[in-house]
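Hi R.,

Here's the input for the adenosine-5'-diphosphate complex you asked about:
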Amino acid sequence: MSTTELGAEIIKAVGVTKRFGELVAVDRVDYLLHENEVAGIIGSNGAGKTTFFNLVTGYYPPDAGAIYYKGEDVTRTTPEQRVALGMMRTFQLTSTFDNLSVIDNLVLSFFRAHKPHSLFDLFVNTCKRHRKDEKIQAILATFELQDVAGREVRNLSLGEKRRLEIAMAILAEPKVLMLDEPLAGLAENEIKAVLGVLRRHIGRQTILIVEHKISQVEDFLQRLTVMHEGRIIADGGYEECLRNPEVRRSYWQIDVSADGGAGACA
Ligand SMILES: Nc1ncnc2c1ncn2[C@@H]1O[C@H](COP(=O)(O)OP(=O)(O)O)[C@@H](O)[C@H]1O
Ligand SMILES: [Mg+2]
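And here is the predicted structure with adenosine-5'-diphosphate in place:
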C-alpha cells in the first residue's frame, strides 16, 4: 500500500516502554497502524512482540508512553473497554465453549457482540433459533467450517479451532483484528487454510499479525515491522526489510559487515 492510499490512523503507540524488573521488554516503541492495513510484527523469540501486543490491547499498562486508538488516548483503559471500541484480539476469544458445537459457538459470539442477552438466555434460546441465520451460514462458508459445523469444539483439529477463533472474532465486526502467532503449532496445510480465510478479509479489515517466522507470512503482509530486543529496527515492505542491514544482522544473524546492505527500510 503506498502512502497516498493509506487509510486513517487507527492505532498509534508513542514511546511505549515496558520493563520486567531490570529487563526492558519494550523500549520506547513508536508504531502506527492505518485502517485496512494488513501489517505484521516479526522478530526472534524474546524480541518483545507479545509484550508490545499486550500493551496495545491493554493487558499491561506501559511504564512510559501512550497508546492512541483513532486519536483517543486509551493508555489507561481496560482490555474490555478496548474491545468495546473495536480492538479485538483472538486470544481473549479463545474462550470457545469446548462442549458446544462450532455453529453454536459462532451464534454465541455474534450475539454476545451485538445483543446484550444474558448468557443463560443465549444458551437456552438463541442457539437453536439462529443456526440458520445468513451471517452465521456465510461465516461458516468463508472459514470453510461447514463440514464441522455440528462438531463439538473439543473434537476439532488445531487448524479448525484456529479458524473458528478467527471467525468468532470477525463476527464481532472489530475495527482492528489482532492476532498473536495465529499460525503457531499448525501444519503446513492448516497454515494455508488459515491464511486463505484471512486473505478474503484483506481490503475490508485492518489486521495486525505477530509472527515469529517471517517466511510463513511474507506474501500475506503488506507491511512488516521487525522488532529486536524491545525496539523496532525496521518498518516497511518485505523486500526493504530483507535488505535492511540491522534486520540481517539481528534477525537472520547474517554477517553484513562485508556487503553493507541497502537499508531502504526505515
Ligand atoms: N510477564 C513477564 N515477566 C517477566 N519477563 C517477561 C514477561 N513477559 C515477557 N518477559 C520477557 O520479556 C522479553 C520479551 O518477551 P516477549 O514479549 O514474550 O517476546 P516475543 O513475543 O517477541 O517472543 C523476554 O525476554 C521475556 O522473557
Ligand atoms: Mg510472543
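One thing worth noting: Residues 1-86+176-266 form a domain with the Rossmann fold fold (CATH 3.40.50.300).

Cheers,
M.
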